[in-house]
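The following block was generated as part of the benchmark described in Methods. Ligand: manganese (II) ion.
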Amino acid sequence: MPDTLFSPRAAPVIPVAGGAGFPVARIFCVGRNYAAHAAEMGHEVDREAPFYFTKSAHAVLLSGQDMPYPPRTQDLHHEMELVVAIGAEATNISTADAMKIVVGYGCGLDMTRRDLQAAAKDKRRPWDTGKDFDNAAIIAPLTPAAEMPDLADLPITLAVNGEIRQEAVLADMVWSVAEIIADLSTLYTLMPGDLIMTGTPAGVGPVVRGDLMEGRIGDLTPLVTRVV
Ligand code: MN
């Protein structure tokens, strides 16, 4: 190995129930994948194609740790989401085969500096500063895909200080997990280590220092974090 100026940053590792951890490479996020959330943000769902943005792997914060309130925002929002973990390489995979490359599922929070995102939207600029920042991808331990029933029936909720703010079922997703994987694989060669955050239901809103967030999806390991 050639000399390097410093040690490369290690990939964050998400615990997996009953097995070895999942080292994170890339994080793909789906926009407006629940009609009621698209409506609350002032949009209609576009069934033409899903759209995506990304977060750095180094934005990961493991569930159970505190989330430091991030800089340059007065409007930090929660977006509770199903996280899909990819365990095999795939390009142009069909929806029929897409689920074969999923190794696990988890609860995730796509934390958003909504004020910065809104300013970027107004100026038709990229969303990066609103979406991709330190600790912006909070991920709970994963459950192996082989142990999961049909996802569609699972309820997804987010409570803040014990009060439910977001509540839906995964069947409400505009694009299914298989459709998202198939479409993403036409844009990127999906690789082991990739995570997909599959979009948030309605009910997004602000959190402040001291708030306790608890996210649940069926029997997946719950996500818990406090904003500090
Ligand atoms: Mn989101």
